[in-house]
Amino acid sequence: MIPGSNRDHPTFVRSFGYALEGFVTAVTTERNIKVQLCVGAAAVVAGVVLRIDALSWVLVVLCIGLVIFAELVNTAIEAIVDLATQELHPLAKRAKDIAAASVFTLSITAAVVGVIVFARAIALY
To answer: Where, by residue number, is the active site (predicted)?
Structure first.
């Protein structure tokens, strides 16, 4: 496709289809995304049970979305690195490790937010 041209560019609806296909691929092939989705679902259940307030819901939903986003980006980076080289190259390892560290950092941050939100909800329950 020529940059700036609409020729051969997928329709808006088709673009959503590609995004959904990518999400399904990640869920069916990547263990960590399944773990993140289960933890997110558990947070939603806990939020419903504890009847958290609207602002707490915003924080929980943002954290879930950001962690899943980071896991998807990490998966894409790993796939690109694997496409670029099949050998065990130090730069390939560095890229993969740093991408994984970004998910880890965000997951820890989300867990801290979850502890604060749910500890407050339990105290008010």
So the answer is: 71 (proton acceptor)
3-state class (DSSP) for residue 102: helix
Among 43, 47, 63, 71, the active-site one is: 71
- For residues 34 and 42, the answer to whether their CB atoms sit within 8 Å is no
- According to DSSP H, which parts of 1-125 are helical? 12-29, 31-50, 54-84, 90-124
Series of mean pLDDT values for 10-residue runs along the chain (125 residues): 63 92 97 97 98 98 98 97 92 96 98 98 93
Predicted confidence at residue 76, as pLDDT, reads 97
| Three-state secondary structure call for residue 51 | coil
Which sequence spans correspond to the domains of the chain?
36-124
Top CATH class of 36-124 equals mainly alpha
Give yes or no: 21 in active site. Answer: no
- 71 annotated to bind ligand: yes
Nearest one of 6, 117, 105, 7 to 61, comparing CA atoms:
117
The per-residue pLDDT for 3 is 56
